[in-house]
Amino acid sequence: MNIKKTTLTITLVTLLAGVRPALAQDVATVNGTVIPDSQFNQILTGALNQGQKDTPELRNTIRNELINRELLAQAASKEGVDKTPEAKLAWNQVHQNFLIELYLIDYNQKHRITDEQVEAQYDKEVSQLKAAGVSQQFKVSLITVASQAEANAVIAQLKKGESFEKVAREKSIDTSKAQGGVVGWVLPVQLTPEIGAAVTKLNKGGVTAPIQGPSGWNIVKLDDKRPFKVPTFAEAQNQLRQQLLQQQRIELINKLRSEAKINTP
């Protein structure tokens, strides 16, 4: 009986020893540092998801890339380039961004935006649009400058015949300057009351007088307008979900700030 148990045990150990490398096998060992199979599989999965075919050549390329990266990392550590003040600052920023991303992913999973919340937001916004009597949508371009004097100078340039796009790229401090000031299609309720009222009175191609706002002085051009049709829930749900996620993030940050001890100079 004892002999049979021993023989069976030896047989199982031998079989498992043959199976183990197939289940998990390290990619390589570089100067004593192991490159795990999990790291290889993560990159391989990403490549396959992007449409690449699983071939021996692809696997060999990934393996060599991981080895090369490990060699470079070891060389950098040996030279001490990670010990400089600049490197430590950069690493702290990378580490902070990594923690923030992990935390927000975890928070979103624990506080999921439900379909019911998205539907409720859709109904709320549709009701607001109907109450506001929104019937038209406007395509606008924007130039924002810091002072009224700069805004008057912009108006003077436009009256001399310079294109709105050119002046926006040169003078605007709004992020839309990269697109020549083009903001795109908006509803009056999406603008400040002053800008919304001014835009609705413009003819196509018209430009407002300078209007002061929270970010500076604004000159708005009406590029086009069209009748507004309320989007269906199917058309709007993805944007509404992102809107609710952004709102959730703002509420989270406000909560954390209210609970924190923050000292500023």
Automatic annotation (TrEMBL):
The keyword Isomerase applies. It is an enzyme of class 5 (isomerase). GO terms for molecular function: peptidyl-prolyl cis-trans isomerase activity. Gene3D superfamilies: 1.10.8.1040, 3.10.50.40. Its EC number is 5.2.1.8. It catalyses: [protein]-peptidylproline (omega=180) = [protein]-peptidylproline (omega=0). InterPro entries: PPIase_dom_sf, PPIase_PpiC, PPIase_PpiC_CS, PrsA_foldase, Trigger_fact/SurA_dom_sf. Keywords: Isomerase, Rotamase. The keyword Metal-binding does not apply. This is peptidylprolyl isomerase. The lineage of its organism: Bacteria, Pseudomonadati, Pseudomonadota, Betaproteobacteria, Rhodocyclales. Belongs to the PpiC/parvulin rotamase family. Pfam families: Rotamase_2 (PF13145), SurA_N_3 (PF13624). Residues 135-224 form the PpiC domain.
